[in-house]
Every structure is written in structure tokens, then in C-alpha cells.
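User: Okay, second chain of the day. Same drill as before: sequence in, C-alpha cells out.
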Amino acid sequence: MLTSVALISVRIITGEDSWICDNGEWVKHGYPISPKPTSECVPDDSGAGTQKQENRKISGKFTFPPDAEGAIDMSVCAKSVNSDKEYCTYYPAKQTESLAEINYEIKLFPGSYLIYAFDYNDRGRASFYTNYVTCGMTESCTSHENIPVVVPQFSDISGIDPIDWEDYKDSIRLREEDAEYNAANPITPDDVDLGLPPE
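Assistant: Same drill. C-alpha cells below.
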């Protein structure tokens, strides 16, 4: 009798006995003590089956590219860490032309996401939510690594600001340096190999 009680206790503690969502159907796994769930089961963001969950909301602010002249069309996206899913919002310039910072919000399923903003017409002009942002964006902040944002099951998150433009600023500097070099070192006809056969 004691052995049976011990086995039952192990099953409960280890969580091996439960209901699993498989292709939209609740399937018994082991010997669950709870009855079959009555709620709908759908795949969660990681692809595993789970009980249907309500969307949670993340919010924050974003800014325009450092070389933008006035307001432009912008988007903010949440890219899932566990899949190729991406959820985006769109902010047309006519709604943001008088603002230096724009508030956004995105509704997401619980999971982990990378958050970034970008020029709607040029995804290469992008900013990210990184360690640099959470550090305070001062000279002592040297890391620009993306931070995965974990969206919990039962609460919303605020203060997620994708405003680190460092990668894009680097590309601007490289283009400017290339332009300065090309201006100081113009290409002459003698420098160009036209691929013509020798005379």
C-alpha cells in the first residue's frame, strides 16, 4: 500500500501525468488526476500545444532614423525567438510628423521576442531594443546586443523602447568615409581595367 502511494506521489510531482494538446485535440498523457480540459487547445508560439491564451500587450516608444529629414512611415515589429513568426504595427508619417518620439503597442502571445523599429520603405534603416537602451545610452554603455523580451502569460509589459540606432549609424559612417575617400582619390581612365584584349 505504501509503495502505491509513493508511485502516485512521484507521478504528480514530476508532471508526467497531464493532458497534451495534439493537433487541436486534448490527448491523455499518463494518468492525469484532472478531467479533460474544456478550453480550446491551439499551438503556442514555440509550436508546442497549449491551452488557448489571450494576447498580452507590450508598449514603448521609438524614434526616427538619425538621418531622416522629418517624419517618415515607420513600423515596429516583434520577431519570435522560437519561430519565424513576426508581428508588426505601422505608423504613417502623417500621424507622427509633429513628434520626436512615438508611442507604440503590439499585442502578442506569451513567448520571447526581439523588438525593432524600421523605416517602412527601407528595412535596412532599423533600430533595436538592446543592452545599450537599458544601460541608459551613455558613453559607458558599450554593448549593443539585442535583448529578448519575454512576454508573460498574465500581464502586459511597458518601457520596451527599440531606439538603438548604432548599427545603422555605423553604416552611415562607412558610407560617408567611402564618399570622402572617393572624393580624395578619384578614379581615372588609367585605373580602370576594361577587360579589352591587348593591341
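The chain has two domains: 2-51, 56-183.

User: Thanks, on to the next one.
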